[in-house]
Amino acid sequence: MTPPDDKPIVLALQNVSCSYEAGTRALEEISFSARKGDIICLLGPSGCGKTTTLRAIAGFEPVASGEISLNGAIVSATDRHVPPERRRVGMVFQDYALFPHLTVRDNVGFGLAYATADDRRSRIDEMLSLTGLSELARRYPHALSGGQQQRAALARALAPQPVLLLLDEPFSNLDPDTTERMRVELLHLLKTTQTTAVFVTHDHEEAFAMADYVAVLNNGKLEQYSAPETMYHLPVSPFVAEFVGQADFIPGTIRDSVVVTQLGEFPVPKAYRGDSEVVVMIRPDDVHIRENRDGDGTVASRQFRGSEIIYGIRLDSGDFVHSSEASTRFFPLDSKVELKVIATHTVVFDRKAWTTQRVF
Amino acid sequence: MDSANPFLPLSSLRFRFPSPLVLLGFCLAIALMLPLLYVAFSAMTADPAVWRRLWATRVPELFLNTFSLSLGVAVINLTLGVSLAWILTRYTFVGSKIWDWLLILPLSIPSYVLAYTYTYLLKRGGTLEQVWQTIAGPEAVFFSPFSFAGAVLVLALNTFPFVYLLARSALKNFNISFEEVARTTGADRVTTFFRVSLPLIRPSLIAGLFLAILYVASDFGAVSLLRFQTFTYAVYQQMTGRFDNTAATCLSLILVACAFVFLFGERWFRQRSRFYQTTSRYRKPVPQPCRPLTALLFTGYLLLVFGAAFGLPVLLLIQWTVKAASAGEISHVFIGYVWNSISLSGITATAAVICGIPLAYLACRRQTWASTFCVQGAYTGYILPGPVAALAVLVLVSQTVPQLYGTILVLLMAYLVHFLPAALQGMESTLQQLTPNLEEAARSLGARSLRTFFHVTLPLVRGGFLSAWILVFVQCMKELPASLLLRPVGFDTLAVRIWLEASEELYQLAAPPALLIVVITIPVVLLLMRKDRT
CA-to-CA distance for B254 and B256, rounded, in angstroms? Predict the structure, then answer.
């Protein structure tokens, strides 16, 4: 599952399982790896095991089976557990966990206990100026805004030059405006410092905006690990398809290596090896509508989003699809429309499996 | 209030309580402060020769003793309190839940009872020395109970729960991310404990130490039985041995002044080191299961501390009581002492709650300089050690209405000055939790203030007021120095009997009243702690 590249592998998880108590699996057989400088995102609904994965990498959760290695050395296995302080991972906690009894400067310098005084000072200064906190160095955490606290936590985690940076829902405590700005800042900082990072989120937009590779977890299992674009256009399961964006499924039947649906015929993906009764995934941006009295769709809902309008279309068959239109294209509710689907790839799933697996 | 004006803003109701309330509060505050003020006055107008003599003879020794005793107790309290709290908040093992409760129980033994059991345990050829000699050889000697070490041991065992309880709640509500983030930056467990956990719970530790030290500095029972010279004991000796109330007032003033400095020092420190939780959502520590050997080690340690502070003394008391009962030593005279204690405590508790009502009202509902003055004035009794409260009331009464001297009223006054703050504290916090909107609603429906109080406020705060009553009742049952100094002739309370018998080393005779006090106090201690935990 490692993307082909020539950079060294920093983090590798191989068939990692974790359990809180004997019997209940919090993680099952997770495998993925990251190369130097990669930004990996663990994405999934709450309780899916993404935070457990992060804590297992940090060394706060033991693994029940499988192994985790950092820079080629095994740090977690059934018979081996390197304590967190010897893993050289930096961690930014959801609540930042800035030490309230220390100033920003002392917080940033906390992990530099073994450096000489001079090295320590210069490294702190470097981190403070990198994160734009030089002016606030003498303040205590409670006197910082949310964004400043996050930057301080980041500076503290990066100061000892960790091999890997872990971030647990780093933006969940910020207001939306700050989040937008901090995403850009964080991405810039990680890329300039060539830091390998793993972060956890439940927001697919955040994952897509930040990550080089996204791992979608569901019920403790890794559903898909791939680049954001691949994940959006070629999801491997209905769960992933729906979790990373709006997706509709319409029934189809494979006949003579094409999928026949009420919205037209689509080529069958080469890799598909299932039953001939299928569902085809349709993204709103693939659907285009045109006003037509004799069309087989009816405009049932409209959601204005600024740059686009999402129309909900009820098909005469009873199925429902969404269409993303430019925000200047206006169709009144209940008007009849005709639909045209233009998709670069077709994504199909076995219809029986899809019916039983539906989560939403 | 102009009821004809329908446009009167509602908020003005809040500031229109009857002024008799302020007047009443003012009188109460003055009455409660008067003894202290009188002591201060007579000490400052005392003959300079008395001051010079005291400075030359007693004061340096008393300072040194009181200070070193507090310091010794503080060191032991910190070690015991933090280690016990750490074990019980971070690990689970068989019985760890029960230990959590058991470690509160030492608070139910009055210091003089603990001291008296230790004079027996530690005496020459006593139980502990025999045990010690089988380990360390026949020539080995244990330290005497009548020494610095003895006083430190007894008072530390008596007060460590203060530090333990506060350390425990601080560690229990600790944001574990702080420790985890320290670990990820390369700090091992020990470094993390000393550089992160300990500094973060420091405010709680200081608060616990403050309580313990205040307790030690104002303790009379233990130091008097162990004959260890501190300020409180010296005040008592000046009054009874030398009948020199002037010297006693001088020593009292010094002690109270120190207590004030200490009190403000703690306030200042606490304000400076107020730490903020950066968010409300955080990860609390989850107690980890530990290996059987570690569990055994922990249990042994807990058993040792608990046995020394509670188990062993109570077993002794039970044993002696059984002996006394079978020897027919528990007679109608004993019942008389029980009745004296119960009636006196009941009257005091009732008086304290009644006096506390207007003061608590002032504290919660009216934030003006006058009410602040009244409330703070009433709280001054908080820092008066028992012998000082007794002396103050005694001096005041003998100078103004000497006819009262030797009656039960003097004793009641001293109790009230001493214990009203404890009642007030509980009542104030109960009343604070009651939104004034309820009272305003009642008054907007036409109820006058007294009717509002009896039909709305009182039913809602009854529980809190009741626990204030129980608290004062139990404190009175245990009270020793004021009872000893001010009781009418022949009117002995249980505490007085314990002290008198124990001073004569009549262990068996002192045991039944001591056991009774412990038994009465246990449910109250547990009750207060349970409230503390929710």
Answer: 6
Mean pLDDT of chain A: 89
The Cα B255–Cα B262 span in angstroms is 10
Nearest CA in chain A to B282: A95
CB atoms within 10 A of CB B294: 13
Chain B hits for A89, Cβ within 8 Å: 184
ipTM for the predicted complex comes to 0.71
Q: What is the DSSP letter of A49?
A: S
Q: How far apart are CA A108 and CA A84, in angstroms?
A: 18
**Nearest Cβ partner for A85 among B183, B273, B282:** B183
pLDDT averaged over every residue in chain B: 83
Whole-structure pTM value: 0.77
Q: Which residue has the higher pLDDT, A207 or B45?
A: A207
Higher pLDDT, B444 or B307: B307
Which residues make Cβ contacts (< 8 Å) with residue B472, sequence separation at least 6?
Answer: B345, B348, B349, B352, B353, B419, B420, B422, B423
Instruction: Flag whether pLDDT at B494 surpasses 60.
Output: yes
Q: Using the beta-carbon criterion (under 8 Å), do B186 and A98 form an inter-chain contact? A: no
Which of B452, B437, B448, B453 shows the shortest CA–CA distance to B10? Answer: B437
Task: Return the CATH fold of A248-357.
Answer: OB fold (Dihydrolipoamide Acetyltransferase, E2P) (2.40.50)
The C-alpha of A143 sits at a distance from chain B's nearest C-alpha, in angstroms, of 10
SS3 A130: helix
Q: Which long-range contacts (CB under 8 A, 24 or more apart) does B51-60 make?
A: B51/B250, B53/B247, B54/B247, B54/B250, B54/B251, B58/B234, B58/B251, B59/B251, B59/B254
Asked if the Cβ–Cβ distance from B282 to A141 is below 8 Å, we say: no
Position A124 pLDDT exceeds 90: yes
Domain with CATH 3.40.50.300 in chain A: 9-238
Q: Report residue B424 as tokens.
A: 């007030």
DSSP B194: I
User: What Å distances lie between residue B9 and A74, A78, B16, B451, CA to CA?
Assistant: 72, 71, 12, 22
Gap from A316 CA to chain B (nearest CA, Å): 49
Size of interface A-B (CB pairs under 8 A): 91
In the CATH scheme, what is the code of domain A9-238? 3.40.50.300
Token reading at B394: 């005694």
Q: Per the CB < 8 Å rule, is B187 touching A111? A: yes
C-alpha B124/C-alpha B122 separation (Å) is 7
List, as one string, the DSSP characters of A141-172. Answer: GGGS-HHHHHHHHHHHHHTT--SEEEEESTTT
Contact state of B185 with A85 under an 8 Å Cβ cutoff: yes
Architecture of domain B17-35+329-503: Orthogonal Bundle (1.10)
> For chain B, give me the number of helices (H) and strands (E)?
25, 2
Bridging pattern class, strands B91-92 and B288-289: parallel
Chain A residues with CB under 8 Å of a chain B CB are 58-60, 83-91, 93-101, 110-111, 113-114, 140-142, 149, 153, 156-157, 159-160, 162, 166, 173
